[in-house]
Amino acid sequence: MEIFVKDPSATVDYGIDWGAGYLSENEAINNSSWDIFPKEEDGDLMVHNVPDFSGTQTSIFIKGGIIRKIYRLTNRIITSAGRSDERTIIIKIGER
User: How far does CA 63 lie from the centroid of its chain?
Assistant: First the structure.
């Protein structure tokens, strides 16, 4: 699991490259969804734009967050070969 520090005033994107060591040749991502835990409350981390995916990569733009709070962003995919999986990244909110 990767851990990132995000400033609460920043609007940034994070992504996952599923290609290296996971997807087989000619396999692509057909569907991608993201969940943020804990769920949104006032001032919490939230999705800024519609999550995106292309080929072997997924991404999500996020904004906000409460100082010292830790969030889990879980990305679930379905591939062109019918496989499904999920990966989680950790976002810690702190002044940068």
Answer: 12
Residue 1 has pLDDT above 90, yes or no: no
pLDDT tens string 18-35: 997 889 988 999 999 999
Tens digit of each residue's pLDDT (9 = 90 or more) over 48-83: 887 899 989 999 999 999 999 999 999 999 999 999
Decide: pTM greater than 0.85.
yes
Q: Evaluate whether 14 touches 62 at the Cβ level (below 8 Å).
A: yes
Q: Which amino acid would we find at residue 5?
A: V
User: Residues, the chain, total?
Assistant: 96
CATH 2.60.40.10 applies to domain 2-93: yes
List the structure tokens of 84. Answer: 């499904």
Residue 75, phi then psi, degrees to nearest 5: -105, 125
Residue 26, Cα to own-chain centre: how many angstroms?
23
| 30, 48, 60, 83 from 64: Cα distances, Å | 29, 9, 13, 33
